[in-house]
């Protein structure tokens, strides 16, 4: 059982990264600045105290609190605000990071196209870019049955962080998914609660 512990500030942050959401160029794409002052401070990337028996490098997703924790040494974790699956699209379980992609192509699954026929134009894939649904990075989650169809990915929709609006994937701010991508290794355990 994991427990977040109070840290050096009233919200548990040991170190807050609110200044890391400015504009930047990444692989030729000009990522715009996020108006981070409009995002609840608890969803800003931060190092927090987090006690768990899981080993460093594990990713724990707390869907009810809308946080993703990247487990670090010494009872600490990097915590990111996330957007999660809307009602009827939530999921829980254990998976692993099988693939990592920078500026990935997004291909909506057939069942999503049936629900949203306007997505049929992307049946062959949506090119990478600033409006791509997977954002700047994606970590592909596989379980015992193979590709789960779920991803940890960036989003251009910064206002969706802290909300339940996706079709089941876990969304992070583009600047946060770049940070997580650089930390997470292929094979990393992912626990979604």
UniProtKB/TrEMBL annotation:
Family label: Belongs to the YkuD family.
Keyword Amino-acid biosynthesis listed: no
GO cellular component, as recorded: extracellular region
Domain L,D-TPase catalytic: from-to ranges: 57-193
Gene Ontology MF: a single term: peptidoglycan L,D-transpeptidase activity
Annotated PANTHER family: L,D-TRANSPEPTIDASE, L,D-TRANSPEPTIDASE ERFK_SRFK-RELATED
UniProt-recorded name of the protein: Lipoprotein-anchoring transpeptidase ErfK/SrfK
Any single Pfam family the record assigns to this protein: YkuD
Record keywords, A-Z: Cell shape, Cell wall biogenesis/degradation, Glycosyltransferase, Hydrolase, Lipoprotein, Peptidoglycan synthesis, Transferase
Catalytic residues identified in the record: 153 (proton donor/acceptor), 169 (nucleophile)
InterPro entries, per the entry: LD-transpeptidase, LD_TPept_cat_dom, Transpep_catalytic_dom
Coiled-coil regions listed: none
Alphabetized CDD domains for the sequence: YkuD_like
KW Flavoprotein (keyword) present: no
Biological process (GO), any one: peptidoglycan-protein cross-linking
Record pathway: Cell wall biogenesis; peptidoglycan biosynthesis
Species of the source: Neomesorhizobium albiziae
């Amino acid at each position: 059982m994991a427990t977040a512990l109070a840290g050096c500030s009233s919200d548990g942050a040991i170190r807050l990264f609110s200044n890391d959401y400015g504009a930047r160029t990444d692989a030729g794409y000009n990522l715009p600045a996020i108006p981070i002052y409009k995002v609840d401070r608890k969803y800003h990337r931060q190092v927090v105290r987090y006690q768990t028996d899981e080993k460093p490098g594990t990713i724990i997703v707390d869907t009810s609190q809308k946080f993703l924790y990247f487990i670090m040494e010494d009872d600490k974790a990097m915590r990111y605000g996330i957007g999660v699956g809307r009602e009827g699209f939530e999921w829980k379980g254990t998976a692993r990071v099988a693939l990592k992609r920078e500026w990935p192509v997004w291909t909506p699954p057939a069942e999503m196209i049936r629900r949203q026929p306007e997505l049929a134009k992307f049946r062959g894939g949506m090119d990478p870019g600033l409006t791509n649904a997977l954002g700047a990075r994606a970590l592909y989650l596989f379980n015992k049955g193979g590709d789960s169809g779920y991803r940890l990915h960036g989003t251009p929709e910064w206002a969706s962080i802290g909300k339940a609006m996706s079709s089941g994937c876990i969304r992070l701010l583009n600047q946060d998914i770049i940070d997580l991508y650089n930390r997470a290794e292929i094979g990393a355990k992912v626990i979604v609660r």
